[in-house]
Design goal:
176 residues; mainly alpha; rod-shaped
Length: 176
């Protein structure tokens, strides 16, 4: 069946094809596209590393919130407002990290789309420079927004960090 289809396609004059398809035997062209996609692949590695750090921080925030929620049940009345305030801070941090993870994951999807567009454009001999450029710009905007959310979470974590004798006295505050 495939042989009949390819024979029928080869019988058609090339000018009748809407899009010229690159021959499979041109390994040099594929190698060139792979070279073009190396930079976005390095970017994917950086995004993956950032996602790993962010998910680790989210896990620590969740663990700390669970510990404080456990303390809340048996806490003396004077400690309850401090625990609620710290839980609210942890909730805000979790929201920021969640947003940062979403933005960075979206960046990874956009970068993968850029790589796919590079291959499809080269394979179909279609100029994909404008869509690739726009997708890359979109990816960078998403990545910057993700990093800004991550930075905001770090600032909140630093501001809520209690080190010293006051932490032992209240028992509610601690860094995550």
């Amino acid at each position: 069946m495939a042989a009949l289809l390819s024979a029928a396609l080869l019988a058609l004059p090339q000018s009748s094809w809407a899009i010229q398809v690159r021959e499979f035997q041109n390994v040099g062209a594929v190698a060139h596209v792979i070279q073009l996609s190396v930079a976005p692949v390095f970017l994917l590695t950086a995004i993956g590393t950032m996602l790993s750090v962010m998910t680790s921080r989210l896990g620590r925030i969740i663990d700390r919130a669970r510990v404080l929620e456990g303390k809340l049940e048996n806490a003396p009345d004077h400690s309850v407002p401090h625990l609620h305030a710290y839980l609210a801070t942890l909730s805000r941090r979790a929201d920021l990290i969640g947003r940062a993870i979403t933005l960075c994951t979206s960046t990874a999807v956009v970068v993968c789309t850029v790589i796919a567009l590079l291959f499809v454009g080269d394979f179909l001999r279609y100029d994909m420079s404008l869509p690739v450029a726009l997708m890359f710009i979109l990816g960078m905007i998403l990545f910057v927004l993700g990093l800004l959310n991550f930075l905001r979470e770090i600032f909140i974590a630093k501001a809520s960090l209690k080190i010293g004798p006051g932490t032992l006295r209240h028992g509610a505050n601690g860094g995550a």
